[in-house]
Amino acid sequence: MQWNHRYTYYQNIIEPALDSAIPLVISPWEEGQIPLRLAEAMRYSLLSKGKRIRPVLLLAALEAAGGDVKCGIPFAVAIEMIHAYSLIHDDLPAMDNDMLRRGQPTNHCKFGEWTAILAGDALLTEAFHIMAQSDNPHALKVIKEMAKRAGAYGMVAGQTADLSFEGKVADENMLSYIHRHKTSDLFIASMRAGFMLAGSDDSIVEAAENYAKMFGLAFQITDDLLDVIGSSEEMGKEVGKDEDKLTWTNLKGIEQAKIDAETAVQKAVDYAQSFDFKDNAFFTPLAQSLLQRVK
């Protein structure tokens, strides 16, 4: 199976699982159900048209390590919930104040600010509720991994640094810190979770982490590039809003950013080649595809 067909195969597993994870109810205040307005806001962001890269990476890692994809579905749903929550909060007026996400109004523009905040809160906590119901023997380790990468030591730390250095001068070390935590940590969580659920050796899990770290760096550099040279129509969000932020293009310029993205992709490919499992043909072209991103 070609890598892009395999990607679609994983997407087709993920989409119905996401849809069923947050059911809608007729009564807005039925006991034991998510309130209707809250469910609508959660579903609005969770089911909006996204690439699903993080859950795809998780399922691909699990299957590549010889695990059963079915046991990974709750964790794939959870990582996408965590990602969706982060986007809702990232778009809020107190943070990036974005009006457009994936080609549609951001959650707070659609439902109002307090509903958006609660929808993000609910998606994050529901992610852990879903994972906690798994009977996989490695589930607890994976839950700890997700909490570490999504929280105060990971993605939230990266977002804190990103906002703290807006409009300020900083160096490449701080920029790398922001990208590593704000972007790479959820990719790392996805890859590590997939291999951990399959019971892979620590050496393979570490190689997967290194791949995800470089994958995330390349992803964020290309994202910074697209904010400068991309279009709102293709990106599905406002572009040119990062002028005062610490980004790769602002610090190093467009041409050097392109070179650094290529370098990060090559490092990711090298790590993919070091994986000791039956098939790494998916992870190499996936990393290389980042250099052709238009959104």
Give me the Rg, rounded: 18 Å
The CATH class label is Mainly Alpha
User: End-to-end span in angstroms?
Assistant: 25 Å
Tally of separate domains: 1
Q: Give a quick account of the main beta sheet: strands, pairing sense, barrel closure.
A: 2 strands, antiparallel
CATH architecture designation: Orthogonal Bundle
Label the overall shape: globular
> How much beta, percentage-wise?
under 5%
Per the CATH scheme, the topology name is: Farnesyl Diphosphate Synthase
Mean pLDDT: 92
Number of strands: 2
SS-based class: mainly alpha
CATH superfamily caption: Farnesyl Diphosphate Synthase
N-to-C SSE string, H for helix and E for strand = HHHHEEHHHHHHHHHH
Number of helices: 14
Low-confidence stretches: none
Helix content estimate = 55-70%
Strand order of the largest sheet: 1-2
Describe the secondary structure blueprint for this structure.
Elements: H1 3-21, H2 36-46, H3 53-64, H4 69-90, E1 100-101, E2 104-105, H5 107-111, H6 113-132, H7 139-150, H8 155-164, H9 172-197, H10 202-229, H11 232-235, H12 248-252, H13 254-273, H14 283-289
Antiparallel strand pairs: 1-2
Helix pairs in contact: 1-3, 1-4, 2-6, 3-4, 3-9, 4-6, 4-9, 7-9, 8-9, 9-10, 10-13, 13-14
Describe the 3D structure.
- The protein has 295 residues and is mostly helical.
- It has helices spanning 3-21, 36-46, 53-64, 69-90, 107-111, 113-132, 139-150, 155-164, 172-197, 202-229, 232-235, 248-252, 254-273, 283-289, and strands at residues 100-101, 104-105.
- It has a single domain (3-231, 241-293), classed as Orthogonal Bundle (Farnesyl Diphosphate Synthase).
- The chain has a two-stranded antiparallel ribbon.
- Helix 1 (3-21) crosses helix 3 and helix 13 (254-273) runs antiparallel to helix 14.
